[in-house]
């Protein structure tokens, strides 16, 4: 009831303040608009004897009037001075809400009121008496208001802001020319255009910076990839050189060495192994070189695209990337030349080997034609007869003579062959030299281009630096001018604020009293509301605590009237619903209730005593089937498991909560014994944790007990959480 009454009074106070302020400004405007045609004399203030006789409600009316006046003055001064408004909001409760409700009906600032007031005296241009008559009339009215002995004391604070300050403001506004307003408008437009241009320039610079950053990241990644790929390709090509040289040396040694005939197979096996290693190295080198060339081509394409783009053409990462591209390409070309040279030598050696193999096969065929019965190379063959040896020696002599004749012919033709070989080699060398020359020329050209770009970049950097310094100097000069203009405006505003503050100092004492009255009224209202709210919360906390106690008792005792354990199950839906209603659907309570299983609400949970009484039977059956796994077993396994349960005694591993137990060391008997140990000591959670480690048939046997124990623990945990919440809420209402 008190809250409703105080709210109505506050609403009436706000409405009265709004009407008072609107009437105040409307009276000011109407007075100025009608000042021209009115006569000089002003109506005298109402005499004191015209006041109505005091009644019973006169004190309340005066108090209400003073309240309206104080609130209106407070709101007006807070509208004028933001610092005073901030002080009121910090010290007076609910004042910020009142200001937020009233200020939308008021102008945005004091300057806005002044800018609208000078537009009204334009009507006085048609006054034949001029502005002097109006000013004289206003001054006379002010003097009469100030010296009238019959005026009421309460009307003095209202007459001050309605007369003299308004006339002074009107005079000041009349003296202000119209042209500075236009210049200020043009200046604001120019300032807006400058801000818009600066914003667009900033956006353009951000876009350019983003493009350059993206190019730098791309170039860094490509340079790193090029370096890694090129180094890897060079290393693989070095392995190709080493494997090729090793293969050539082994091949030459196998062909030239005739001292140890029995080790020829091992030598040729080494040659074959070296050839395979060479082929593997060549394939790997081809793959890595191709990958390196592709990455270099990507880097080259990225550099060209960056140079074509006007935004990124002067990026600082382009020159280092070009240097890296030039160096890596040169190193790859040099290594490729060495590989090709080594490959040429290997090809010559292979041709020499083919000629030797061809001569050996020809000699073997000739011997087979002379002695068809003798198989050359067959160690198990028969020994040669004397005639066969003589025939072989004769053939060897004839072959030697034939070779001597061929040697003489070859010596005669060798000079011509050497000459042709020299010419071919010269052509090949010229071709290789041209290739090397072209590569070197390209490298030098790239280096020259890079150096040229460095020089151009340095020159452009110096020019940009000079332009930047010039812009900085101009910007600094413009900044100083802007600071001076801002400082001038601040000083003008400060002077005007001090002037009006001096005019309103006499009203501050009354405003202070009004603030005290409002604070006391709000304090009483807040105390009553707080007391009612605290009593309501205390009652809710008591109801919630009783409902939680009922839930805890239902979980702990179940249905005591039941004869069997199954009949002692008690659904908890009624208790949970009572808790939900008592808490007023509090989020914490609803979250806890939602976590309670549906089976607990509809069916109920086994009590701790029933679960403890049921455990020995579960333990006994689990011990008897300890050797049976998940898939079951034969009768023999069940019998052996039963015998084992008879001869094995209980062994407890963990007799303390802090004892660490290795799960792999636990078996069915130790788990059951430990669970029984903790169950006897009231540690129900530890017993359930241990029973949850069972495997196989014991797990199936104890599954129902474990499930019921989990439901009991979940329900008990929810009940404990709700009890803690109810206790905390009850303590909160006390303190």
From TrEMBL:
Q: Residue ranges of region Disordered?
A: 33-56, 124-190
**Which residues lie in Basic and acidic residues bias regions?**
135-148, 163-190
What residue spans carry the Polar residues bias annotation? 124-134
Annotated coiled-coil segments of the chain: 289-345, 386-454
- What's its membrane topology? Single-pass membrane protein
Q: Where are the transmembrane segments?
A: 63-80
UniProt-listed InterPro entries: MIC60
Q: Give the source's domain of life in one word.
A: Eukaryota
UniProt subcellular location: Mitochondrion inner membrane
UniProt keywords, alphabetically: Coiled coil, Membrane, Mitochondrion, Mitochondrion inner membrane, Transmembrane, Transmembrane helix
> Which family is annotated?
Belongs to the MICOS complex subunit Mic60 family.
Complexes and interactors: Component of the mitochondrial contact site and cristae organizing system (MICOS) complex.
Q: What functional role does this protein have? A: Component of the MICOS complex, a large protein complex of the mitochondrial inner membrane that plays crucial roles in the maintenance of crista junctions, inner membrane architecture, and formation of contact sites to the outer membrane.
Record's protein name: MICOS complex subunit MIC60
* Originating species: Sinanodonta woodiana
Q: What is the lineage of its organism?
A: Eukaryota, Metazoa, Spiralia, Lophotrochozoa, Mollusca
């Amino acid at each position: 009831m008190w809250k409703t009454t105080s709210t109505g009074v506050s609403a009436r106070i706000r409405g009265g303040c709004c009407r008072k302020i609107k009437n105040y400004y409307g009276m000011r405007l109407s007075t100025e608009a009608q000042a021209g045609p009115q006569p000089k004399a002003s109506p005298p203030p109402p005499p004191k004897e015209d006041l109505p006789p005091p009644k019973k409600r006169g004190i309340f009316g005066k108090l209400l009037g003073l309240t309206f006046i104080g609130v209106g003055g407070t709101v007006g001064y807070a509208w004028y001075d933001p610092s005073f408004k901030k002080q009121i909001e910090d010290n007076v409760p609910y004042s910020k809400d009142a200001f937020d409700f009233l200020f939308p009906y008021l102008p945005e600032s004091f300057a806005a009121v002044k800018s609208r007031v000078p537009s009204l005296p334009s009507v006085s241009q048609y006054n034949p008496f001029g502005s002097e008559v109006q000013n004289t009339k206003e001054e006379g009215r002010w003097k009469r208001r100030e010296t009238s002995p019959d005026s009421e004391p309460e009307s003095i604070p209202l007459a001050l802001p309605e007369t003299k300050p308004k006339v002074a403001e009107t005079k000041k506004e009349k003296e202000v020319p119209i042209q500075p307003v236009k210049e200020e408008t043009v200046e604001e437009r120019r300032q807006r255009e400058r801000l818009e241009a600066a914003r667009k320039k900033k956006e353009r610079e951000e876009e350019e910076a983003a493009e350059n950053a993206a190019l730098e990241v791309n170039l860094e990644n490509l340079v790193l990839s090029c370096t890694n790929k090129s180094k890897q390709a060079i290393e693989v090509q070095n392995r190709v050189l080493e494997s090729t040289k090793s293969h050539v040396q082994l091949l030459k040694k196998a062909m030239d060495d005739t001292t140890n005939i029995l080790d020829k197979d091992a030598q040729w096996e080494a040659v074959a192994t070296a050839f395979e290693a060479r082929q593997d190295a060549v394939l790997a080198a081809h793959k890595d070189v191709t990958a390196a060339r592709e990455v270099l081509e990507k880097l080259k394409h990225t550099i060209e695209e960056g140079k074509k783009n006007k935004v990124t053409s002067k990026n600082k990462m382009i020159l280092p990337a070009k240097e890296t591209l030039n160096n890596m390409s040169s190193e790859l070309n040099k290594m490729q030349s060495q590989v090709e040279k080594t490959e040429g030598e290997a090809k010559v050696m292979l041709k020499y080997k083919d000629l030797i193999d061809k001569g050996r096969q020809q000699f073997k065929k000739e011997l087979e034609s002379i002695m068809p019965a003798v198989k050359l190379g067959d160690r198990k063959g028969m020994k040669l007869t004397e005639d066969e040896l003589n025939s072989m020696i004769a053939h060897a002599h004839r072959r030697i003579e034939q070779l001597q004749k061929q040697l003489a012919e070859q010596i005669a033709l060798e000079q011509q062959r050497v000459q042709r070989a020299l010419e071919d080699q010269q052509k090949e060398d010229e071709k290789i030299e041209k290739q090397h020359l072209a590569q070197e020329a390209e490298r030098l050209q790239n280096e020259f281009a890079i150096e040229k770009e460095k020089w151009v970049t340095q020159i452009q950097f110096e020019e940009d630096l000079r332009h930047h310094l010039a812009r900085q100097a101009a910007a600094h000069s413009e900044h100083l001018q802007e600071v001076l203009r801002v400082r001038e405006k601040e000083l003008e505003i400060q002077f005007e604020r001090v002037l009006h503050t001096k005019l309103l100092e006499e009203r501050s004492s009354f405003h202070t009293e009004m603030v005290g009255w409002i604070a006391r009224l709000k304090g009483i209202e807040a105390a009553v509301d707080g007391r009612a709210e605290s009593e309501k919360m205390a009652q809710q906390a008591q109801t919630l605590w009783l409902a939680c106690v009922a839930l805890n008792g239902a979980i702990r005792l179940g249905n005591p009237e039941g004869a069997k354990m199954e009949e002692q199950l008690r659904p908890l839906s009624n208790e949970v619903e009572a808790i939900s209603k008592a808490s007023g659907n509090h989020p914490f309570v609803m979250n806890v209730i939602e976590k309670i299983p549906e089976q607990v609400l509809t069916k109920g949970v086994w009590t701790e005593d029933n679960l403890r009484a049921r455990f020995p039977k579960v333990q006994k059956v689990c011990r008897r089937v300890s050797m049976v796994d998940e898939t079951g077993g034969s009768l023999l396994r069940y019998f052996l498991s039963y015998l084992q349960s008879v001869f094995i005694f209980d062994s407890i591993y963990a007799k303390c909560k802090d004892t660490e137990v290795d799960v792999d060391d636990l078996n069915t008997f130790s788990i059951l014994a430990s669970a029984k140990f903790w169950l006897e000591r009231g540690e129900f959670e530890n017993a359930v944790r241990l029973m949850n480690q069972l495997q196989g048939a014991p797990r199936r046997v104890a599954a129902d007990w474990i499930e019921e124990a989990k439901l009991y623990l979940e329900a008990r945990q929810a009940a404990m959480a709700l009890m803690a919440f109810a206790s905390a809420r009850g303590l909160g209402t006390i303190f």
